[in-house]
Amino acid sequence: MDAYKLFNWGLLILTFGLLIYLGYLSSRYMNKSDEGGFLVAGRSLGAFVGAGTIVATGFSGWGFMGSPGVTYQFGAIEVLGNFFFAPAMMIAVLYFARFLQRRAIEMGSNTIPEYIAQSHGGGAMGRVLQGMAAIITILLLLVFLTSQIKAVGLLGASWLGIELNQSAFLMVSVIIVYTMLGGLAAVAWTDTVMVCGMALAAVIILVQIFTSVDLGTWEASLNAIDPELLNPTSGAHYGESIGTVFLVLPYAFLFAAVLPYMAVRFLAMKPDVKLHKVGVYVAILGALLSLIPIVGLYVRMQVPNLSDPDMAMPVYLERFMHPAIQGIITLFIIFAMKSTANSLLHTVASATSHDLRLSLLDRVTSEQQALFINRTAVVVLGVLALMMMLYAPPFMLSWLGILGSGTLLASMIGPVFISTFWQGSGWGALSAMVVGFFTSGYMMLFADVGWLIGPLTGCAVSSVCYVVVSLMTTRPVFRKASI
């Protein structure tokens, strides 16, 4: 093992120790016997930590590994699409977070499936809704988690000089430990540390790229390879029309506002947090991280014949960075991918240990027993996701991520988002989840319509179904929370 590999291992061990220590501190900070502390961090997140965990989770592995690979394959249109996430997340924070937060506090909701159940009347139908929402969340986020584990495993393997399976096992093990210790508080605190490293990595990468290449030469080289890279005539992976890339803005807004692993952060923030401060932090960090896909264009010019586009970022770091700087940036990118992986794992474990438990058993165990079940679920589902990654067929990281998150979005839009301004019935919520699940899933798997058309079509069909079925059935009366 050479000196730089030893340096990388030293960095990894040091930061693993820091992450586990943060998990331990968060477990001490929160009431050990309080399940709400594990599920929503005791509603204790401040402005910067809230923004840090939102941005880290939203960009992370997809932003640093998947998106450069998509840009390498399809060109600058992915850079534009990626940039819409920052304003979309800011809009979700400023105009949706407060309503969801206050209504969840009024009802005592600790997860999004529980919020769906309680906001649609509770009772027997509420248990059905909570169980259905939990099952859909588990199935689809396990798919997404599989892509995140592969991403972090690929990068860690090349960085440490070990096999993919060994790297994935190492990374997942640490995620399991600190998530199990501190729940969402540990996830949020570690995310905040990670996003600071991610922002620093983005600055270093952009400085290296723009100081090492002439822009005119860069443009000419890309046009010689494929004119579609810089001057697309279609929306490429987003759809036939070039205008379909602008659908990323509403998709990203709903991504931040509706998906359980994102929206639960709104529930976890302090009731009196200044959301305009959260929005400013989200805008700054998000805008900076939105520029990372430029790496794909840079590598396409320098190395035009990569067999696997998802290797664009690892190849960039290996060929164009000093080994020591490469090690530090790779660590930050691993941070990025882990920030989404830990959020997905926490949400899947919460859906299993909390939502399914309440749906099936209709009784509350002691807080200590519930906390033990929560932590056990983190371990079991973390190992299951690792096994899924090891035996999954080849896939493109970004596509698998959108399959999971986009289909979940189509399932949840009615009972989570539409219900904020028009209250539907339990039957409307149930039918919307099922219809959204099958519509988006079918279009992503079997229809060649682009990566966004499937989920957004699922959202539209699910929303209509939510309204129509609700009008045909009895709707609960619920006092609206003020925004």
UniProtKB/TrEMBL annotation:
<feature type="transmembrane region" description="Helical">
    <location>
        <begin position="397"/>
        <end position="418"/>
    </location>
</feature>
<feature type="transmembrane region" description="Helical">
    <location>
        <begin position="372"/>
        <end position="391"/>
    </location>
</feature>
<feature type="transmembrane region" description="Helical">
    <location>
        <begin position="169"/>
        <end position="188"/>
    </location>
</feature>
<dbReference type="GO" id="GO:0046942">
    <property type="term" value="P:carboxylic acid transport"/>
</dbReference>
<feature type="transmembrane region" description="Helical">
    <location>
        <begin position="248"/>
        <end position="268"/>
    </location>
</feature>
<dbReference type="GO" id="GO:0006814">
    <property type="term" value="P:sodium ion transport"/>
</dbReference>
<feature type="transmembrane region" description="Helical">
    <location>
        <begin position="451"/>
        <end position="472"/>
    </location>
</feature>
<feature type="transmembrane region" description="Helical">
    <location>
        <begin position="79"/>
        <end position="97"/>
    </location>
</feature>
<keyword id="KW-1133">Transmembrane helix</keyword>
<keyword id="KW-0812">Transmembrane</keyword>
<feature type="transmembrane region" description="Helical">
    <location>
        <begin position="280"/>
        <end position="300"/>
    </location>
</feature>
<feature type="transmembrane region" description="Helical">
    <location>
        <begin position="6"/>
        <end position="25"/>
    </location>
</feature>
<keyword id="KW-0915">Sodium</keyword>
<dbReference type="InterPro" id="IPR018212">
    <property type="entry name" value="Na/solute_symporter_CS"/>
</dbReference>
<feature type="transmembrane region" description="Helical">
    <location>
        <begin position="128"/>
        <end position="149"/>
    </location>
</feature>
<keyword id="KW-0406">Ion transport</keyword>
<dbReference type="InterPro" id="IPR001734">
    <property type="entry name" value="Na/solute_symporter"/>
</dbReference>
<keyword id="KW-0472">Membrane</keyword>
<feature type="transmembrane region" description="Helical">
    <location>
        <begin position="320"/>
        <end position="337"/>
    </location>
</feature>
<dbReference type="GO" id="GO:0015293">
    <property type="term" value="F:symporter activity"/>
</dbReference>
<protein>
    <recommendedName>
        <fullName>Sodium:solute symporter</fullName>
    </recommendedName>
</protein>
<keyword id="KW-0769">Symport</keyword>
<dbReference type="Pfam" id="PF00474">
    <property type="entry name" value="SSF"/>
</dbReference>
<keyword id="KW-1003">Cell membrane</keyword>
<keyword id="KW-0813">Transport</keyword>
<feature type="transmembrane region" description="Helical">
    <location>
        <begin position="425"/>
        <end position="445"/>
    </location>
</feature>
<dbReference type="GO" id="GO:0005886">
    <property type="term" value="C:plasma membrane"/>
</dbReference>
<feature type="transmembrane region" description="Helical">
    <location>
        <begin position="37"/>
        <end position="59"/>
    </location>
</feature>
<dbReference type="InterPro" id="IPR038377">
    <property type="entry name" value="Na/Glc_symporter_sf"/>
</dbReference>
<feature type="transmembrane region" description="Helical">
    <location>
        <begin position="195"/>
        <end position="213"/>
    </location>
</feature>
<dbReference type="InterPro" id="IPR050277">
    <property type="entry name" value="Sodium:Solute_Symporter"/>
</dbReference>
<comment type="similarity">
    <text>Belongs to the sodium:solute symporter (SSF) (TC 2.A.21) family.</text>
</comment>
<keyword id="KW-0739">Sodium transport</keyword>
